[in-house]
Amino acid sequence: MKKHIAVLAGDGIGPEITDGAIAVLKKIGEKYGHEFEFEHLLMGVCAIEETGEPLPQYTIDRCLASDSVLLGAVGGAVGDPRINNLPGHLRPEAGLLKIRAALGLYSNLRPAKLFPALAGACPLRADIAAKGIDLVVVRELTGGIYFGERGRGQSEGGEYAYDTEKYNVEEITRIAKIAFELAQKRKKKVISIDKANVLESSRLWREIVHTVAKDYPDVEVTDMLVDNAAMQLVKNPAQFDVVVTSNIFGDILSDEAAMITGSIGMLASSSLGATKRGLYEPIHGSAPDIAGKDLANPIATILSAAMMLRDSFDLGKEAEAVEQAVNKVLDEGYRTADIFSEGKTLVKGSEMTKLIVDRI
Ligand code: IPM
Ligand code: MN
């Protein structure tokens, strides 16, 4: 199989971690007889520096021409003079929103799993962690308040600003279907999260989720209010399997879900739309404080590459080979600084990549 992969390494630790994923994909290619080509493109602060905008049209065009996209991370440090005082639409984050919209990536899957070898890193009480954490946040990614009308104006109370949360039936239906189909491959349980006691958009969300649910009688669906969900995630995370929610609630809850696994440096994600062309990226950010020091954990990006193999290229066996190599390295006790604990072997980011590549 021959595939063309667009690489948006981005900022901070982005280039180090995408290098790790590329090395792994190259090894998979050699071992299983596939040819992966990589095309590096600008996005984020590095794109702003060179072109004045966070996501140049050329990058969009080349991503659209690719089979899939691998993304590192975008964003600069607080106070970075290259992005200080930039208007909202020229900030690096705007580039990320624009690529999601341009590629039509409405479905963002964020699995949060407690790796047995890292159970010690879980910040929750041991009896709670012992029940395990293995959930997927299905986050709607191209609608809601992130893309609704926004603006500023003047009122009697001074300047005002507003953003709009808005969802239509089609947007809710297609993301609900993704969640139910995923649930059929897992524990057949969907928890839909909203704020239907207050928001009209959430009331429509809830209504439509239940309409879609009728086509999946084998899946149990429960509604949960977002404030309660925030609490339940730390009280009893084992109750969650597939969680489906809006863009902004998914943003917030997926960080919480990642944190309770204790290893944000380990968590991958996929963003897909109507085609097989997806965007795969780690959940963590650009970590400018440790950039260039070979300290960053490449595993989240490597596991994102595994998701690409499985979900965009239908290479399930190859994806499993990557996941098994990661598990093996962890079982052997190798740790980057972010997941290090006493008695384990501390390694640099590039060493971690090499250990994984050698086990494929
Ligand atoms: C994420 C990030 C982005 C988001 C930002 C950087 C725009 O927080 O992918 O979760 O809010 O979607
Ligand atoms: Mn986020």
Keyword list:
360 residues, alpha/beta, Isopropylmalate Dehydrogenase, 2 domains, two-stranded antiparallel ribbon, 12 helices, 14 strands, binds 3-isopropylmalic acid, binds manganese (II) ion, amino-acid biosynthesis, leucine biosynthesis
| Amount of helix | 25-40%
What fraction of residues sit in β-strands?
Answer: 15-25%
| Architecture (CATH level 2) name of the largest domain | 3-Layer(aba) Sandwich
- Write down how many β-strands occur, each being a DSSP E stretch of 2 or more residues: 14
Report how far apart the termini are.
Answer: 18 Å
Q: What class do helices, strands and sheet pairing give? A: alpha/beta
The fold-level CATH name of the largest domain is Isopropylmalate Dehydrogenase
Fourth-tier CATH superfamily name of the largest domain: Isopropylmalate Dehydrogenase
Q: Record the strand order, biggest sheet.
A: 2-1-3-12-11-4-5-10-8-9
List of distinct ligands in this structure: 3-isopropylmalic acid, manganese (II) ion
Function: Catalyzes the oxidation of 3-carboxy-2-hydroxy-4-methylpentanoate (3-isopropylmalate) to 3-carboxy-4-methyl-2-oxopentanoate. The product decarboxylates to 4-methyl-2 oxopentanoate.
GO cellular component, one term: cytosol
Site (Important for catalysis): 146, 195
Subcellular location: Cytoplasm
